[in-house]
Specification:
The chain has helices at about 5-10, 20-25, 40-50, 60-90, 95-105, 110-130, 140-145; strands spanning about 150, 160. By secondary structure, the chain is mainly alpha-helical. The chain has two domains: about 1-105, Histone, subunit A (Orthogonal Bundle); about 110-165, no CATH class. Strand 1 (about 150) and strand 2 (about 160) form a beta hairpin. The longest helix has 28 residues, at about 60-90. InterPro entries: CBFA_NFYB_domain, Histone-fold, Transc_fact_NFYB/HAP3. Belongs to the NFYB/HAP3 subunit family. It holds the Pfam family CBFD_NFYB_HMF.
Length: about 170
């Protein structure tokens, strides 16, 4: 089994396994974080889910919690791969290019390409803003930039379906 497959198998379980020494290095002070600290805020997850559904749709607490865990695990999976790459290259900071490369390594090529396009546009916007000496927040239409969404007439906002479409 190759190195990438072993890492994928290692990360696939319900609980993402971190090396305790790595975790200790990332924590400030001696305090460890609780199990909930690695999860995205449930209110944000619910808000994103609501935007993707018809206006009168209801979302159960269990559905929000399930999506919260899945999204958090997905982010941890990709970030872990990017961190491994940075560590091998003796770097301590993960950047957007590392995330895109990790997505490709993990077989998410279409999403990595979409993210790379988004990252490129974001960097262009930041360069223009800094050259004009403005301190504005970048407002880029993520759906248009990522081009991984398929519009459905039954939804207010499109959901990502097949990343190769668009």
């Amino acid at each position: 089994m190759d190195d990438v497959s072993e890492r994928q198998m290692h990360r696939r379980g319900h609980g993402y396994e971190f090396d305790a020494s790595e975790a200790a290095n990332t924590l400030s002070g001696d305090a460890y974080t609780s199990g909930q600290d690695h999860l995205l805020p449930i209110a944000n997850v619910g808000r994103i889910m609501k935007k993707a559904l018809p206006p009168n749709a209801k979302i159960s607490k269990q559905a929000k919690e399930t999506m919260q865990e899945c999204a958090s695990e997905f982010i941890g999976f990709i970030t872990g791969e990017a961190a491994d790459s940075c560590q091998k290259n003796n770097r301590k900071t993960i950047n957007g290019d590392d995330i895109c490369a990790a997505m490709k390594t993990l077989g998410l090529d279409d999403y990595a390409d979409a993210m790379r396009r988004y990252l490129h546009r974001y960097k262009e916007h930041e360069e223009r803003a800094s050259s004009r000496d403005h301190n504005r927040i970048a407002c880029i239409d993520v759906v248009d930039e990522l081009s991984v969404s398929k519009t459905s007439s039954s939804r207010r906002h499109p959901l990502p379906t097949n990343p190769s479409e668009g």
